[in-house]
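Deliverable D2.4 — example input (structure tokens):
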């Protein structure tokens, strides 16, 4: 069959869209840069990009902020140790304890931020590809699920490492 590709499983809805000259020029520039056959296809892609990015951007930002705040807490805690008042051994033991206690939190925050950022970038990249829009959306969903699974696996590994470190620190305190 020759003609336009099927756009959805259900009925399609026409929309009347009026935009300013500058927006129209931006749309055309984006359309040609991304080799979209029609303005309709370009608008569909931009809608999908917006639908993907809109919920992920605030979450990604909050994960990055959380990672920075957690690292800053560790830095503040480290500054609380006065190397002049403590012996070298006491100072390094205090630092090691602080790092050991916060290691999992810092790593979890950093990995969460990285995974969320990678999911956002890769989902957007999947939609950006010049392939069938339904295939692109399915690929973006697949990418999102992959990163969610990887993050859960990493969190499990971090939890196990935190428990091991706590056990080691508790044993050292007993001795």
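Example output (designed residues):
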């Amino acid at each position: 069959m020759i003609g336009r590709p099927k756009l959805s499983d259900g009925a399609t809805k026409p929309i009347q869209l009026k935009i300013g000259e500058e927006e129209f020029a931006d749309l055309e520039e984006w359309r040609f840069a991304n080799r979209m056959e029609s303005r309709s296809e370009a608008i569909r892609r931009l809608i999908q990009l917006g639908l993907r990015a809109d919920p992920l951007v605030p979450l990604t930002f909050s994960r990055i902020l959380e990672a920075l705040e957690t690292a800053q807490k560790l830095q503040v805690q480290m500054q609380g140790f006065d190397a002049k008042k403590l012996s070298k051994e006491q100072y390094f033991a205090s630092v090691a304890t602080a790092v050991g206690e916060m290691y999992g939190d810092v790593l979890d925050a950093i990995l969460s931020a990285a995974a969320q950022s990678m999911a956002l970038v890769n989902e957007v990249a999947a939609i950006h590809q010049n392939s069938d829009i339904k295939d692109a959306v399915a690929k973006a969903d697949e990418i999102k699920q992959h990163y969610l699974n990887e993050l859960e696996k990493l969190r499990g590994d971090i939890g196990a490492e935190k428990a091991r470190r706590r056990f080691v620190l508790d044993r050292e305190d007993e001795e």
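Residues 81 and 91 are 7 Å apart (CA to CA).
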